[in-house]
Amino acid sequence: MAHDPGNTLEVLLETTFEQLGLKASTLKQLQKIGYEKPSPIQSAFIPVALTGKDCIGQARTGTGKTAAFMLPALERVDLSLPKVQVLVLAPTRELSEQVYAESRKLAGGDKLKFALATGGRPIGKQIDDLESGAQAVIGTPGRVIDLLRRQHLKLRNLMVVVLDEADRMLDIGFRPDIERILKSCPEERQTLLLSATLPPPVEKLAQKFMSSPQMVDLSEDRVVVDTIEQYYITVDEDRKTALLLRVLAKEKPGQAIVFTRTKRGADALHLKFSKRLKSDRIAAIHGDLPQRKRDKVIKSLRAGEIRLLIATDVVGRGIDVSGISHIINFDIPEYCDDYVHRVGRTGRLSSAENGRAITFVTLQQGGELTNIEKRINTVLPEYKVEGFEAFRSRNRPTRTIKKFGQGEE
Ligand code: AMP
After folding, report:
1. Parallel, antiparallel, or unpaired for β 256-259 and 114-117?
2. Ligand 1 atom closest to Cα of 64?
3. What values do phi and psi take at 339, rounded to 5?
């Protein structure tokens, strides 16, 4: 009988944590923190990772991927050995901190010792944590290299190394650091790679540093399409701010992230909006903002104090806040994969309501819109705003594709 991928997904959704092969103590902890059933990526990834084989999981933030890789990794830790046995590399400080917090929640208690190794934080505390017997380390490649060089981080006893959001780490230019770190790991180890997308550079990295990896490919496009209502709207460059105000008035988002392509664009929009709306509930976040300020913004966002966050891709994509109801692509993303990442900030596992994503497209950007639609294999419907119709019908971006068949590029 032919294999039906549709059924596979349903079977995965039916799985219980008990069926995945996790230890009784882990199951007890999951119950304690209120995880009732595994997410699809957890159902698919955990049993494979528990075999000790190298695995590649295609999943984005918000799908429960942290528990998917961390539960099998933490189960391998020998609690009586006060040495680093698990190392997780993540692209940004924010994501590392989220993985750190989620991992501590999953481990429960303080038997298992963790250390954070991210830049922008005092290195002294990180050194203390390492020297006092950290068993799982989570960090960004730059600081990890620094700690390795200073010989506070020793990887002799390492059992599992995780590359989280591998695609983004390579985009940011961490390849040399990652390669150095992987070369410092023992040959006999398990490597887990998580990535929202699998472009050739990620495949190359996997080929070089992983041994016969098992692929766990849970179609994330499907996840994006299923849980998020996505639209596009055409607009002239100089009317974007006016349109944004209209969209916000119409949608009344609980919390929204507005993505811009550049840091300057984010700052300029922030300035315009702060003046206009006289609100302290708006903030901008990008790579030039000092770490202390970035932390403050994320904290306020999580607390629900910030309602509108203007962000660039690098920083924005790591944000895991369950209340985000809307993503507005003020600037259409430069790369299709960034679209998937941006839109993944909403429609999250932990939020009950569906999210909405609205992409602003100028007349010249019809081709870019088509590329995104090909990437997600969906034709986006047009979003309508009163007062913008006349303009819209005049300036419709030219799109070449109406519908995509399966297997099409
Ligand atoms: P992640 O994709 O790892 O960033 O996880 C997204 C959010 O879902 C986090 O807030 C997790 O704490 C939560 N989460 C992950 N797995 C489960 C689960 N099986 N049940 C309930 N919540 C979960």
Report:
1. unpaired
2. 2
3. -60, -45
pLDDT tens digits for range 139-174: 999 999 999 999 999 999 999 999 999 999 998 899
Domains of the chain: 2-217 (3.40.50.300), 228-395 (3.40.50.300)
What pLDDT is stored for residue 58 in this prediction? Answer: 87
Give the residue whose CA is nearest to atom 10 of ligand 1: 350
| Closest CA to ligand 1's atom 21 | 35
Q: Which two tokens stand for residue 73?
A: 């990794």
Ligand 1 nearest atom to the CA of residue 37, by list position: 19
From the alpha carbon of 66, which atom of ligand 1 is closest? Answer: 3
Provide the residue count of the chain: 409
In sequence order, which residues have a C-beta less than 8 Å from that of residue 232 and are 6 or more positions away? Answer: 358, 359, 360, 361, 369, 380, 381, 382, 383
Please write the tens of the pLDDT for every residue from 333-389. 988 878 887 887 775 544 546 689 999 999 889 889 988 887 777 788 999 887 765
Nearest CA to ligand 1 atom 11: 64
**Residue 1 has what pLDDT?**
29
Q: How far is the centre of ligand 1, averaged over its atoms, from the C-alpha of 75 (Å)?
A: 18
Instruction: Give me ligand 1 centre to Cα 68, in Å.
Output: 9
Atom 5 of ligand 1 has which residue's CA nearest to it? 64
> Residues near ligand 1 with C-beta < 6 Å?
35, 38-39, 42, 61-67, 102, 320, 349-350
Q: How far apart are CA 223 and CA 219, in angstroms?
A: 7
Q: Work out the pLDDT band at 85, boundaries 50, 70, 90.
A: very high
Each residue's pLDDT tens digit, 288-321:
888 888 888 988 988 888 999 999 987 776 676 7
Instruction: Look at residue 400 in the predicted model and tell me its pLDDT.
Output: 52
**Cα 362 from chain centre:** 27
Query: 75 near 46, Cβ under 8 Å?
Result: no
Scan for tokens 């983004």, then name that residue.
168
Ligand 1 center to 242 CA (angstroms): 36
